[in-house]
């Protein structure tokens, strides 16, 4: 029997009380009840699970601003198709040079490894969108691709949680 059965506590009030107290165990018990009452909530929960735990792509793309590395849970086209950022229409992808899937934690750690190794080759960009700090000179494309290929297998099975976007 779940701890709230038999109590005259409104589900939302119970949720608020548990949330205000950061009662993670109580909230973990309440979530299945919320899902039963609001099954449409599943798609939102899965979206967050995908962000923290699901499959992500680590990519290297040649752009009109330089070589860009990054990760996304979406396709590269979706990632750069967002037009909500200032001057985003000026950003163009010329070629996708590398694109492979990793578990979320593996993707974040792999991207971090690449950024650390490639830091000396970074360039400043006038981009005003996420990822502007992950731009590199086209002069070092071979180094970038070699490092990507050299390290990628170390992260293909790295399972764990990453912070949500």
Question: Could you please describe the fold and organization of this structure?
Answer:
With 165 residues, the protein is of the alpha+beta class. The chain folds into 2 domains: 11-51, no CATH class; 55-155, no CATH class. Helix content is 42%, strand content 18%. The protein has 6 helices and 4 strands, in the order αααββαβαβα. It has helices at 11-20, 24-37, 41-53, 76-81, 104-118, 141-151; strands at 55-63, 66-72, 93-103, 135-136. It has a 4-stranded antiparallel sheet with strand order 3-1-2-4. Strand 1 and strand 2 form a beta hairpin. Helix 1 runs antiparallel to helix 2. The longest helix has 15 residues, at 104-118. The two termini are 36 Å apart. The model has no long low-confidence stretch (mean pLDDT 87).
What count of structural domains? 2
End-to-end distance: 36 Å
Number of helices: 6
Order of helices and strands: HHHEEHEHEH
Poorly predicted regions are none
**Which word captures the global form?**
elongated
Q: On the 0-100 scale, what is the average pLDDT?
A: 87
Strand order of the largest sheet: 3-1-2-4
* Helical percentage: 40-55%
Largest sheet: 4 strands, antiparallel
Name the beta content range.
15-25%
Instruction: Tell how many strands the DSSP assignment holds.
Output: 4
Radius of gyration: 21 Å
């Amino acid at each position: 029997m779940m701890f709230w059965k038999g109590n005259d506590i409104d589900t939302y009030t119970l949720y608020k009380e548990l949330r205000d107290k950061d009662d993670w165990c109580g909230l973990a018990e309440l979530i299945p009840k919320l899902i039963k009452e609001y099954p449409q909530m599943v798609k939102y929960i899965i979206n967050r699970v995908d962000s923290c735990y699901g499959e992500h792509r680590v990519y290297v793309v040649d752009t009109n601003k330089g070589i860009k590395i990054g990760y996304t849970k979406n396709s590269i086209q979706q990632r750069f198709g967002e037009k909500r950022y200032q001057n985003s229409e000026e950003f163009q992808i010329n070629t996708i040079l590398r694109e492979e899937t990793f578990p979320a934690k593996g993707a974040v750690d792999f991207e971090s490894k690449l950024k650390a190794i490639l830091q000396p080759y970074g360039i400043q960009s006038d981009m005003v969108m996420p990822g502007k700090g992950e731009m590199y000179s086209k002069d070092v494309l071979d180094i970038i691709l070699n490092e990507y290929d050299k390290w990628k297998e170390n992260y293909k099975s790295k399972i764990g949680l990453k912070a949500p976007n």
